[in-house]
Amino acid sequence: FKLLQLLRPAINQKQFKLYYQPMISLADEKITTVEALLRWPQPDGGFITPDQFIPLAESTGLISELGRWVIQQACLFCARHRSLGHSRLRVAVNLSVMQFKDGQLQHIVEKALHEAQIPADALELELTESLLIDETEQIQKQLNSLSDLGVTIAIDDFGTGYSNLGYLRNFNASKLKIDRSFIIGLGTAVDDEPLVEAIINMAKSLGLETVAEGIENKATLHKLLSMGCSVGQGYYWSKPVPEEELGALLNKSN
Ligand code: G
Ligand code: G
Ligand code: MN
Ligand code: NA
Q1: Pocket residues: Cβ below 6 A from ligand 2
Q2: Among 31, 59, 83, 186, whose Cα sits 20 to 30 Å from the Cα of 75?
Q3: Rounded alpha-carbon distances, angstroms, from residue 209 to 18, 42, 48, 212
Q4: CA–CA separation, 94 and 156 (whole Å)
Q5: What is the pLDDT along the chain (254 residues), one digit of tens a residue?
Q6: From the CA of 34, which ligand is nearest?
Q7: What pTM did the predictor assign?
Q8: Domain spanning 2-253, CATH architecture
């Protein structure tokens, strides 16, 4: 298949680009963290989306190398904007389960932090619920040592995986991102409001900060604020944008 043959050279030639989407503190609408999201630009000016190439990168093992590049670039991005005056900015990176397989992740993270000269608490690692549910003791160990290092572990797309919550007690996550499918329904779908409120309260009692994904309007923002959600992300503030455009958003947020 064509995409598969293009992936290896694309990684070698560093054809990928990171886009960035802010996460906003709902109380004051300031940017706290920026999520790095991979894009694969094409000659026609379009993009291949991560939903198309991440599964390929995973099945070929190329995700290790691509994922390492993402971590390095995200840390350098964070360092650039910290030195431009956004001194408390944090960056979030999405991880695949494959990145835990070779036991190199902690080393890769430490090296990237060191090269960018940013502290470990400037980095957040987002892991999908399905990754965490299947987690082995080997993954759990790596997550705990990353957490001991000071890196934030966030549970991504919460609510869409298997409904076994047992994994929540096994490791040191400190953030929970409520999947946008629940947030989009706020104000329309009758059942989503108590569901979201229950997730927020559960997270609170577990000592997790909640992030609501997919906020697209002010009404949703206010509803989430009243439910005690602390952080949000979504098109209401910004879609994922290239670094050039993010600078302006950061300056506006100061
Ligand atoms: O950016 P977009 O919303 O299209 O992202 C689609 C999916 O691809 C999301 O689930 C996101 O977490 C995932 N994704 C984006 N960038 C990366 C990345 O660098 N690594 C991994 N593993 N997943 C990513
Ligand atoms: O799974 P993850 O949360 O990493 O995926 C991020 C994806 O969600 C990105 O592809 C991004 O484009 C998309 N996204 C971010 N905010 C919104 C939003 O407000 N509405 C919708 N529909 N999608 C969003
Ligand atoms: Mn994510
Ligand atoms: Na998500």
Answers
A1: 21, 37, 94, 156-157, 180, 213-216, 233-235, 239-240
A2: 59
A3: 25, 37, 32, 10
A4: 8
A5: 688 889 999 999 999 999 999 999 999 999 999 999 999 999 999 999 999 999 999 999 999 999 999 999 999 999 999 999 999 999 999 999 999 999 999 999 999 999 999 999 999 999 987 777 766 788 889 999 999 999 999 999 998 876 567 777 777 789 999 999 999 988 776 778 999 999 999 999 999 999 999 999 999 999 999 999 999 999 999 999 999 999 999 999 97
A6: 3
A7: 0.96
A8: Alpha-Beta Barrel (3.20)
